[in-house]
Amino acid sequence: MSTLPFELAAATVIGREHARAGRNNQDAFWARASEHGLAAVVADGCGSGAQSELGAQLGARRAVEAALALLDKQVPVHSPDFLQRLGADVLCFLQALSGELGQRAIPEALLFTVVGAVVTPEHTLVFSAGDGLWALNGDVQRLGPFPGNAPPYLSYGLLKPGAVSLQANSLRRTDEVDSLLLGTDGAADLAGLAAARVPESNEPVGPLSQFWSDDRYFRNADALRRRLSLLNREAVRADFPAQRLVRVPGLLTDDTTLVVLRRQQGRA
User: Fold this and answer.
1) Tens digit of each residue's pLDDT (9 = 90 or more) over 74-115
2) How confident is the model at residue 166 (pLDDT cuts 50, 70, 90)?
3) DSSP-derived 3-state class of residue 76
4) Is cis: bond before 145, omega within 30 of 0?
5) Which helix (H) or strand (E) holds 18?
6) E strands, the chain, where?
7) How many whole angstroms separate alpha carbon 197 and alpha carbon 231?
8) Could you give phi then psi for residue 198, rounded to 5 degrees?
9) Which residues neighbour 74 within 8 Å (Cβ) at sequence distance 6 or greater?
10) pTM (predicted TM-score)
11) 50 Cβ partners below 8 Å, 6+ apart?
12) Close Cβ partners of 209 (under 8 Å, ≥ 6 residues apart)
């Protein structure tokens, strides 16, 4: 396995509106390390797709495994060829799925956004196709929103070759990376909730930086999921002057997914 000096936390939570409508969480994530490096991806299925969680889950996993396979073949992550070959591999995989499931599977199940990273001992690459959010060393960058809430899905390449490709957002020396956060577009909404109050406890939500600066998210593998779930848990409060109970909705309207990498203390 990789000896990179990073610890990882990751979680996903269903959005308030999807829960109310009885829909599944359409976000997904996958992260894995090998002897050559580490790859992580968050994906968000198209909201209008009946089963877009399928594409998000399979696509995130395929992108990570394909990235690690390229590292195994000694394809440099800083080479333009890396993302070209990675995107082609994912599209080939999706093409095979659509061949088995039928062309209707593309709009119904295979449209999803991608925000990902590949970390090697020498370089760290952040890439994307569609909307979402990433933050490198505390510098938060939002992707989108796009006109008509229609991000460029990588799977559009199945309908029109070359329509969408994976874009390089940042390429840095790994020894310059202290923290890296990848998020779906629900995380972009979360970034604006720092001053909001947690429904059950009335404490401030706090800034996005908590997710790479607070040790608890790395000490306990379930801490990040629990925090996101708490932010989205509906609460009931007593309004004593009005002598009534008030329902306080969860804060995260959309599905929200985070993958966070942080340099381990004392390791260069």
Assistant:
1) 999 999 899 999 999 999 999 999 999 898 999 999 999 999
2) very high
3) coil
4) yes
5) helix 16-20
6) 6-13, 27-34, 37-45, 112-119, 123-129, 132-136, 139-143, 167-173, 179-183, 235-239, 244-248, 256-263
7) 9
8) -65, 130
9) none
10) 0.94
11) 108, 109
12) 138
